[in-house]
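We treat protein structure as text, and this decision shapes the records that our systems exchange. The tokens are whole numbers drawn from a learned vocabulary of local backbone shapes. One such record is reproduced below, unchanged from the form in which we store it:
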Amino acid sequence: MVELDQLQKYYSEIVSRGVEVCAISVDPPEVNSALRKRLDLPCRFLSDPAGVLADRLGVMTPGYNLARDGGGVLYPAHFLVDLDGRVRWVYRPESWRTRARPQGVLRAIDESFQRSVASSR
């Protein structure tokens, strides 16, 4: 929840850089919708109840299978993806207790997409 509170505080700075924010959760859509409303977050929430995307991105507790085990802990990962679908930056912590600092995410946005713009010239 701390991470979503931070997102709310820094949301305008993130979108001012031309970045769209999507939160992905294994919770069902109605749970995500209620959380989004309660925290007054303007970003989209996407539901991945079977954990397919979480598994492919490597953000589920190692050895845990959501479909088989019925739960697990998602690591609070961040991915910056450009309009061509290329991953420009990844933050994938070693522990579910570790969170990215908002200033680090903003710096990654600036650095990743400055290089992207410079290389497209």
Summary: The CA atoms of residues 4 and 66 lie 22 Å apart.
